[in-house]
Amino acid sequence: MRVRYEVILWYTAFLKLIPGQIGCKLRNLLLPYHNAKHVYVWDGVHIDSPSKLKIGNNVSINRGTIINAAGEVTIGNDVLIGPNVTIYSQNHNYNKANHLIRDQGYNIKPVIIGNNVWIAANATILPGVTIAENIVIGANSLVSKSLNKPGVYVGSPVVFIK
User: Fold this and answer.
1) The dihedral of CA 113, 37, 15, 18: what is its sign?
2) Deepest in the core among 24, 34, 51, 53, taking most CB within 10 A?
3) How many domains does the chain have?
4) Distance of alpha carbon 123 from alpha carbon 155, whole angstroms
């Protein structure tokens, strides 16, 4: 089992290094995420649990992005994800102060990103967040709660600005 996991890590590490549109096409063909048409997962994108990732039409996921899809991540149509964005659907449990955190398991919650969303560089999306349609998340922002109203959000944590 451990050897199989190592092989998967090497396989995905190799695939994420291939640049350009050829690399995007190979990732769409060879990684087990569900993708629609015109999906660009650029080189340097790291995806944990890719079989639990669903990507809609006309989506670009830029370099350096990390997606942990253990709790499922769904990305709608016409979504732009800037460089170095972090999307996590899993977090460590911390319920007992006298126990090691690594032994307390994980809390998994899905992340849903609606249609026509732009997530700018270095933003972080936490587990359980839903981002509705027609939303812009500013650079370096932290999204820890669901966003339902269309508009522009910035900050850490994000606030609606227009």
Assistant:
1) negative
2) 53
3) 1
4) 9
User: What is the C-alpha to C-alpha distance for residues 29 and 122, in angstroms, rounded to an integer?
Assistant: 27
Instruction: Say whether pTM exceeds 0.85.
Output: yes
**Three-state DSSP state, 152:** strand
Give the pair of three-digit tokens for residue 106: 């994980």
DSSP state of 45: -
Residue 32 CB neighbour total at 10 angstroms: 12
pLDDT by residue (tens digit) across 26-74?
999 999 999 999 999 999 999 999 999 999 999 999 999 999 999 999 9
User: CATH number for the domain including 93?
Assistant: 2.160.10.10
> Out of 34, 46, 92, 99, which one is annotated catalytic?
92
Please confirm, yes or no, whether 92 is among the known catalytic residues.
Answer: yes
CA-angle at 16, arms to 35 and 84, nearest 5°: 85
* pLDDT interval class at 91 (50, 70, 90): very high
Contact assessment for residue 138 and residue 152, using Cβ atoms and an 8 Å cutoff: yes
Q: Which tokens hold the place of 54?
A: 């669903």
Tell me how far apart the alpha carbons of residues 66 and 51 are, in angstroms, rounded to a whole number: 15
The three-state secondary structure class of 51 is: helix
